[in-house]
Design goal:
Blueprint: H1 6-13, H2 18-27, E1 33-34, E2 40-41, H3 57-60
Antiparallel strand pairs: 1-2
């Protein structure tokens, strides 16, 4: 998906009310837009690559510590 869901925005901000979520997003300097219905829209790309690489070969080839 291109944008975070309402539940993900709530989890990210730790807030349930829209006004509090918008305040938290501004405080965290996360670029966001407000839709015509008033809801917040955050592009996944604004999270600094937290989801980049998920499911790719690079993610599957993570290095493991040498316990020897």
């Amino acid at each position: 998906m291109l944008c975070l869901t309402e539940a993900e925005i709530s989890q990210l901000t730790g807030k349930k009310r829209l006004s509090a979520q918008l305040r938290a997003l501004r405080f965290m300097a996360i670029d966001h837009k407000q839709r015509p219905d008033g809801s917040a829209m955050v592009l996944r790309s604004q999270l600094g690559g937290a989801n980049e690489g998920a499911g790719t070969e690079a993610a599957k080839k993570r290095t493991q510590p040498n316990w020897n």
